[in-house]
Design a protein that fits this description.
Elements (H helix, E strand, L loop, with lengths): L7 H11 L4 E7 L2 E6 H17 L7 E5 L4 H12 L3 E5 L5 H10 L4 E4 L2 H9 L9 E4 L13 E3 H6 L4 H13 L6 E6 L9 E5 H15 L6 E3 L7 H14 L2 E4 L6 H8 L3 E3 L2 H17 L2 H22 L6 H22 L6 E4 L6 H9 L4 E5 L9 E2 L12 E2 L4 E4 L4 E5 L6 E2 L3 H7 L6 E9 L6 E6 L4 E2 L5 E2 L1 H8 L5 E7 L6 E7 L1 H10 L7 H5 L2 H19 L9 E6 L19 H7 L1 H9 L3 E9 L5 E12 L2 H8 L1
Parallel strand pairs: 1-11, 3-4, 3-5, 5-6, 6-7, 10-11, 12-13, 13-14, 25-26
Antiparallel strand pairs: 1-2, 8-9, 9-19, 14-15, 15-16, 17-18, 18-20, 20-21, 22-23, 24-25, 26-28, 27-28
Length: 647
């Protein structure tokens, strides 16, 4: 076999010898947690590797992995690597037509899927992906009467051993052919700015990035991680394969997306990673429960959260706060913080990270004030995640930390951030032009993000996507993502899209959070029959206006961003949806597409209209297209407030 530190399957074999019967994977099924040791996982991957060989999977073939987080799908990734193939995870919630491009682009020869739903998608587009020769499924329900000529049970595939001696010889040969430079995985970007690109990572990229993360936070085999993010996202791959395998930590898969929070509480992971949207939704849930609580609980919550806001972060960072404040915080931990952290499943979290996009400072401080060691990191698919992280004791809501071991940073004269790292990708698949545009011959990678390194702290601060940062008509800075994150701090606002580059003032498209606003509506005896009806309610508009005014006030205090205050807004008649291409599968707004799709609404905002009729194409769950129409109201933010703020 290749050197134990040169491939992920070799690392798995090493773990099976070192950790043996120590838990490697856990999965909750039918309400019961099942556990596999490192030794068992190595045996499963070995059998699956022989099955792949018997099916004729060749070195360099692409094997697509489609489904939610299941141990067997992670093992399939390792088995594909073990035989010299390149695993290519896909987003499980993508509709069939979305899968055509990545599957055809990489000429996938084989797919390992979770269930009938994914099999049906591949059958539906089979004429568009002629290179796909076979499918293996994990869950057999509903597939009994299908044509099984090229359809295989994953369980049966792992049991294939009719030519074991010959296959074993071939497996050893392929393992010896692999090294640190061998292609390890193909991950498609979310495609925020256009068609997604296939990022090719080699073993060195994944192993070195994972090693840097482990060293930075002293991660070891006693840690545990819950795996719930899309397997096609680099965040999941980097934390499970790169960091998880190298540290020897236990990887835990929830029963379903619906049971995630319950399963999270049961596992109590010591290492946790979540995008800002996860923490925003969790805070919304907390606020809704507090709104429903009795007067005594509300009083205790508000009082002790005041104590936490004042002292929590200082205590977390082991700073002096005085005896009385420490005692009051301890009481708060008994009555409020402890039960709340337990409810959220984060009571045992030693290290927590958020990334993907900027998190609202208020949301970030809320979790840290509870004593949760939540930090920010900055990374990209092209870097196998790790570029910068926040060291303990140096955690600031406005920055994303310092370079992890082995990473170099620089900022160009135009303000774009560049990095050089052992985790930097090999290439964009079949895209030499974009590869050369993004990574130069000396290894520096252009991130496409605008930022700067703070002189006082040495930390990197990201402002926005470089292409999105612009100027208002009067010359002031326009940084939409910064303002959007401030708006999304409010539980009632699910999404916000700001426009204003080259204009005299900014306008915003708002998505309300149906759960939060629906709960508010019920308490205020406001009836509604749909999202569209609630979104158009006058009282909802007034509530959103109040939030925007508060954000404008905070922007007025920032000289560089005071021009980004919002003068007019509307609440969209539908939620931005990845099925409609408006946001990515990782919940990032496709700003250009939204701008084009809702150009009539944006034009009405700048023309001074009070309402506008619009018709919008939507995609239903089964892939069918349709249209919805609505008359959308437009509301001004009080002129006096706006004028005072920009004065």
């Amino acid at each position: 076999m290749a050197n134990v530190m040169e491939t992920l399957p070799a690392l798995l074999e090493k773990n099976s010898k070192i950790y043996g019967n120590k838990p490697a994977f856990r999965e909750k099924a039918f309400g019961i947690w099942q556990t596999w040791s490192w030794k068992q996982v190595h045996e499963e991957v070995d059998r699956l590797s022989l099955g792949f060989l018997e099916l004729g999977i060749k070195e360099g073939d692409h094997v697509s992995i489609i489904g939610r987080n299941r141990p067997q799908l992670y093992w399939s990734i390792l088995a594909a690597q073990n035989v010299g193939a390149i695993p290519t995870p896909m987003y499980q919630d993508a509709v069939a037509q979305e899968m055509v491009f990545p599957l055809s682009h990489c000429s996938a020869k084989f797919a390992v899927v979770e269930d009938q739903e994914q099999v049906d998608k591949l059958i539906e587009i089979s004429d568009q992906i002629p290179d796909l020769k076979g499918i293996a499924y994990l869950d057999a329900r509903g597939l009994r009467n299908y044509d099984h000529k090229n359809l295989h049970s994953l369980k049966e595939l792992a049991a294939l051993n009719s030519k074991e001696e010959v296959l074993r010889t071939e497996l050893i040969k392929r393992q010896k052919n692999q090294n640190l430079d061998t292609k390890c995985v193909l991950l498609y970007t979310s495609g925020t700015t256009g068609r997604s690109k296939g990022v090719v990572l080699c073993n060195k990229n994944v192993l070195e990035s994972g090693k840097a993360g482990i060293e930075f936070d002293n991660i070891n085999q006693d840690f545990s991680l819950i795996c719930y993010l899309p397997m096609a996202w680099v965040g999941d791959f980097a934390f499970t394969m790169g960091l998880g395998l190298q540290s020897g930590m236990c990887l835990c898969c929830p029963e379903s997306a619906e049971t995630l929070h319950e399963d999270l509480r049961e596992i109590g992971p010591s290492y946790f990673f979540g995008p800002p949207r996860f923490f925003e939704a969790l805070l919304t849930s907390v606020n809704l429960k507090i709104d429903d609580a009795g007067s005594v609980k509300k009083f205790l919550y508000r009082y002790f959260m005041g104590v936490a806001k004042k002292n929590g972060e200082k205590i977390l960072e082991k700073k002096s706060v005085g005896l009385i404040n420490r005692v009051m915080y301890l009481l708060g931990d008994i009555f409020i913080y402890g039960p709340l952290k337990n409810r959220m499943g984060l009571s045992k979290t030693k290290v927590g990270y958020t990334a993907g996009e900027a998190i609202g400072p208020e949301i970030f401080r809320f979790y840290r004030s509870l004593g949760i060691n939540l930090k920010q990191l900055y990374g990209q698919t092209e870097a196998c995640v790790f570029v910068t992280c926040q060291p303990d004791g140096e955690v600031y809501s406005e920055t994303v930390g310092v370079p992890v071991p082995g990473v170099e940073l620089k900022v160009s004269d135009s303000g774009e951030v560049f990095y050089r790292s052992p985790g930097a990708f090999l290439e964009y698949f079949k895209d030499i032009a974009n590869t050369n545009k993004t990574k130069d011959k000396t290894g520096w990678v252009a991130t496409g993000d605008a930022g700067f390194i703070e002189e006082e702290t040495g930390h990197l601060r990201i402002i926005d996507r470089a292409k999105d940062v612009g100027k208002m008509k009067q010359g002031s800075l326009f940084a939409p993502k910064y303002v959007e994150n401030k708006l999304k701090f409010y539980p009632n606002i699910l999404e916000a899209v700001l426009f204003g580059a080259g204009k005299e003032y900014c306008v915003a498209l708002i998505n309300i959070d149906l759960t939060a606003v629906g709960n508010w509506a019920e308490k205020n005896n406001i009836s509604y029959a749909s999202y569209q009806e609630l979104a158009g309610n006058s009282e909802v508009y007034n509530m959103i206006s109040d939030h925007i005014r508060e954000v404008n006030e905070s922007l007025a205090a920032d000289k560089s961003l005071s021009g980004c205050q919002i003068k007019r807004f509307l609440v969209l008649h539908k939620e931005l949806d990845p099925d409609d291409g408006e946001i990515t599968r990782t919940r990032k707004v496709r700003r250009n597409l939204v701008s084009e799709k809702y150009s009539d609404l944006i034009l009405a905002l700048y023309k001074g209209a009070k309402e506008v009729f619009t018709e919008t194409e939507v995609t239903y769950e089964d892939g069918r297209k349709g249209k919805i129409s609505a008359t959308v109201k437009i509301q001004d933010i009080q002129e006096t407030v706006y004028q005072n703020e920009v004065a």
